[in-house]
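Hey, resending since the last one bounced:
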Amino acid sequence: MSPYVTALTIAGSDSGGGAGIAADLKTLLDHGVFGMVAITAVTAQNSRGVHRVDPVSVDGLIAQLRAVFDDFPVGAVKIGMLGAAAHVEAVASFLAALPERPPIVLDPVMVASTGDRLLQADAERALAEELLPLATVATPNLDEAAVLAGSPGRNAARAWAAGAPIPVLLTGGDVVGDTITDELWQGGTARRWTHPRQGNRAFHGTGCTLSSAIAARLAQGAPLADAVDGAIGYTQALIGTGVHMGSVGGGNPSLPHGLRRDE
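The structure tokens again:
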């Protein structure tokens, strides 16, 4: 009898350890959740940028998914970087065919905090039409939501979130200002969390950390709003430790998973 609840992350690797499956697994462990992985791409990156991306074959990705689901209970799924339309379609097809789907948190990773593009343009349609409807919640920032809306601007992003077929957590960390507001849209209404901005630089891997923390809490049985509330508190607590990894060359520092404080 396993002492752990479990969660699967479907995402790319990060050689710098601050984002992707590295951040996901650290976050899951912080929550006492046993993490499993299906790697979509191997990236060479650090706090200053993504230097190379080597996608995993579609067959290799599906083999990983089958290996996990054939042998382990999966309490939740977090989806991050997919990269190409073929990967999006393969993951959507696999999840849609499951007899019972666990909670799914979709972080539609399109652009890294360093500005590097991580989702090919032709994959955006597949993500919106095939994968998004399967998710329990999506966690785009405002720019990503605008892409999914097919129209630029914050108003378009919010209108899309309000009418989306699933709950959407619009993350506000990329908006310039002294405060950050995250908005959970469900059924046309929003619950908002506002907190002071800590520091004057973006942090590497905050989106991965936040979405994985939501997945961990959903796997543990928390209602969605409670999972989001706890995940936001967890991420803010990591930022508030004042210990930020990397950024020796002026990049975006990574969060110090494992040094969490009680929210």
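Residues 133 and 226 are 22 Å apart (CA to CA).

Sorry for the duplicate.
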